[in-house]
Known about the structure:
Elements: H1 2-15, H2 30-33, E1 34-43, E2 46-49, H3 51-63, E3 67-82, E4 85-98, E5 101-116, E6 119-129
Parallel strand pairs: 1-6
Antiparallel strand pairs: 1-2, 3-4, 4-5, 5-6
Amino acid sequence: MSKKLIDDLTADFFGAFDNRGGTGADVARLRRLMIPGGVVVCTQPFTTYTVDEFIEPRERLLADGRLTGFAEWETSEETVIADGVATRIGEYRKSGVLEGEPFEGGGTKTFQFAMTPEGWRITAFAWRDHA
């Protein structure tokens, strides 16, 4: 049961960036999926963000017409769950049109989860895009 809930939470995370078919992305949903004070890390270049620092520029990018038809999705994962905490590492793919140019890419994301009174929430995630 917990693995399914973590799978669903992770899919909800990836879905927050989807603006295909003219629908608006819902990056603000990350505030519900993550704990307050959650940590976001990009490993190249190494940058740390608060949840709001991560959300704000991505909301603009996905809403102002520069990045359209965008989606990212998990292609493989390994999840370990123990005593109300979990970790997940996985590969993902992404595609879209950035400033009129189609692109595809992918990378690695790792998530940390905790069982909270509201259910599973993301406490931190980190990513690195593949070159």
